[in-house]
Amino acid sequence: MHRCVIAAVVIMAGLLPLGQAALAQDAAQPVYIVTYTEVAPSAASEAGELILGYASEARKASGAVQIDALQRISDSHHFALVEQWQSLNAKQAFAATGPATKFRAALTPLQSAAYDERIHAALSVGPSTPPSGDPVVFLTHVDVVPTQVEPGTAKVKGFVEEGRTAKGNRRFDDLVQISRKNHFTVVEIWGSLAAKNAWISTRTAAAFRQELQPMSGALYDERAFRLLR
Q1: pTM of the prediction?
Q2: How many CB atoms lie under 10 A from the CB of residue 30?
Q3: Confidence band (pLDDT; 50, 70, 90) for 130?
């Protein structure tokens, strides 16, 4: 019995440096941070200014690639941030700065729900065309049951890659949550709502939703936003 315990301890001790190395490696890889936050309806304007200010400061930070601040079209007191960083280390370094900590401190009293920040890796990311006019941004949370991770991943990836070819599309990315490999965030930017509507009316989009449904672990949560500028 004692020998078994000692053997287990030795094995775990041997694995620990490997786990630490893996974490260090992950922290050095490119990451995408998707954050949802809700505030009291009366605080929507103030929160929008705070979030826009955060995005402006983040864009100047070392390691920042792209920072988009978003306001939900149907509920103006709902906001989102889509951040791309060269590494998690870069994001964490900025999060510790004065502007970032002041932003969180100022936003907290306005919040009506928790600050929901999710770390992602790129699963399928294409070119992003700078949007002009009044683009529409969609964030979709896709959840497949753990037993369907492999086919679900392939299904979402294929849908996203075909969507990039659609008329009016400016961005179509598939991100996978680092802590949950069966959770995805699909990021879309369209030149107009009409272009988005034309895409979801295609056979490809309809077939995707039909085929994904048996694999789904939650509702297909699609939200429409406008860019804060």
Answers
A1: 0.86
A2: 16
A3: confident
